Predict the structure of Aspartokinase.
Amino acid sequence: MPLVVQKYGGSSLADAESIKRVARRIVDTRKAGNQVCVVVSAMGDTTDELLDLADAVSPAPPERELDMLLTAGERMSMALVSMAIANLGDSARSFTGSQAGVITDDAHGKARIIDVTPGRITDALAKGHIVIVAGFQGVSQNTKEITTLGRGGSDTTAVALAAALNADVCEIYTDVDGIFTADPRIVPTAHKVDRISNEEMQEMAASGAKVLMLRCVEYARRFNLPIHVRSSFSYREGTWVYPAVEGEDDVEAPIIAGVAHDPSEAKITVVGVKDTPGSAAAIFNLISQQQVNIDMIVQNVSAVATGKTDVSFTLPKTDGQRAVQALQDAKDALGFESLQYDDQIGKLSLIGSGMRSHPGVSATFFQALADAGINIEMITTSEIRVSVVTRGDLLDDAVRAVHTAFGLDSSDGEAVVYGGTGR
Amino acid sequence: MPLVVQKYGGSSLADAESIKRVARRIVDTRKAGNQVCVVVSAMGDTTDELLDLADAVSPAPPERELDMLLTAGERMSMALVSMAIANLGDSARSFTGSQAGVITDDAHGKARIIDVTPGRITDALAKGHIVIVAGFQGVSQNTKEITTLGRGGSDTTAVALAAALNADVCEIYTDVDGIFTADPRIVPTAHKVDRISNEEMQEMAASGAKVLMLRCVEYARRFNLPIHVRSSFSYREGTWVYPAVEGEDDVEAPIIAGVAHDPSEAKITVVGVKDTPGSAAAIFNLISQQQVNIDMIVQNVSAVATGKTDVSFTLPKTDGQRAVQALQDAKDALGFESLQYDDQIGKLSLIGSGMRSHPGVSATFFQALADAGINIEMITTSEIRVSVVTRGDLLDDAVRAVHTAFGLDSSDGEAVVYGGTGR
């Protein structure tokens, strides 16, 4: 019997009516002849309400206790979904992350799954039950403490369980119809992609696309697991994120998978760094000690006459002030002249595995931006991605120009439903 | 170092401010030189809200899933109390019932504690942490499922942990000042009892006193554990429920501990039962098959001429219709003439271990009721208790008359705070 893992996000479980709708869908999947294991997030705004409560008793709550608190959210939704399934005459068993065998490291609030031992799940499935698992949570291997997985954690739970159970597919239900060629709120002509390679999806997620989190995509890629991203509000097919086949390009795939954008980054330029070995290393060691994730890095050509160079990098805006302060405090040790901080930037990325075999993609990309009068401030590339930094207030125009230049605009007038960023 | 187990009920944890107040109290107890293990109920109305949610998705939810849902309530409060303690600069670790080693049978919704293996608690206490445990919940020995203990479950958790940890005292914090000689809402002159024997408390709880649940008192009695019932809203001493010392009466104890009343019962009279061996057994076997708990039983003197007798018993009003229906269905088999059902009754009990050595208590009791013009419909007695059934609308008058007759009315004008029934 095929085994389907489904994941429902908080927006699909907002209230009792939504829960009953999801239960109906799960029972339909079971009746269609599948074993079904479902991962649920907390209902609607539950997590935010719990965070408000925590904030009311302590401005900086211990992470262990915060995880204990937040995991109550998924516990509630999994029990309610199980009850709603029972009410439809089918039988369901709910399991916490710990009961489901989701073993993590001990980094509270951002734990990583290191093993899955789903003995209780396979037992319950074998007995004919539908299984409901709390997403976003696990138990730490060494300390046996309850942990949470951080943003996108329920998607990661679903993919990890699907891999451990050797499932046929992992369905991620959300409030949008699938993966789009661009964010439809910015590009009204964007259209849903029927299929996208795992590799492309990974670049999309890393470049700002919100529907699937990067960690979940990485996990699916590692285990060669197909993901079906679809809406819980319709029965239409969504987007299949399919595993790459070794040494074999997908000849039917379009050259370009989509355009991603990210307005959440800032840029720091370290001006007048000594152009000697170790200068860049010293800067980025300092930044990494601040637990700041750097994205793009550009070092300008050295001006031979001065023996000095400028180093620019992008980072999350939320980490900006911390990084600037750390650099400023180390100015003498690092020996630079000045710092520039700019949080009015936007990042635009073009993703497509077809780039590998189609030269000229970058040229078309840059020409489209030039024709739209948009200046490029930084460029980085990977094998299947080109990313640029522009002025922030021109980012939306840039996304539309590139989307059109690569012929991605939808011509069939398909109604696009886009209700949020998903989680 | 002394070890104190404290239990805080939902009314003491109604909101963030209450939680901070409770945290302060816990930290004060720790600073006074005690190890502290705290059992918490769910916040305020959380349990009712969760039950409403369950009802909205399923009119008859599976008990396993209902337990999974309800246990989220204590999980939230324990994490929040821990955070509030951390915010005061002390360190706390919260544990679910399962983590705390509360092992139960597998009767979901009304599980009984069969063992406590508090290894993680003793470890945490040894490391200098304050320990917070979710009340009302455990894990079943055979099935490893999450269970709840039913009404008064958090008190029972506290007493069971106190026994397992060999604690010096178990403090039950509630919204009243302690155990009163009668319910102060009915008898304004009722006063707080400073101490009461475990045996008396057991009779009080069984007779309708709500502050401590019967199961919790039974547990404490079995383990010779002193309980201190007190208010979380003041620092006054409450009532000490002390273990009996074998073969030794407490000469300082008052003759009468208090007057308990219970308006929640109904009376069934089975009229014209054949006065032969086995008739009563057949009736009560039938009732027990309905999972109905019988309280008082009276069989009238057999009328020799007819060879028939009447059997009366009391039971919870909520079970009344079910019991009547079962008896009616078995009328032919049981061979009685008719049934009388009366839910307009009240039960009044006088409790005091001094009765054992002071004859005349019953006479004074009956005389007080006679003087107040109150008819007695049923009587039962134990070694330290006399209970009667009266008309329901006379119950409050009866309580006051008896309270006065035994000199229990407070003369010192002590302000009595009574905010609820406790849980």
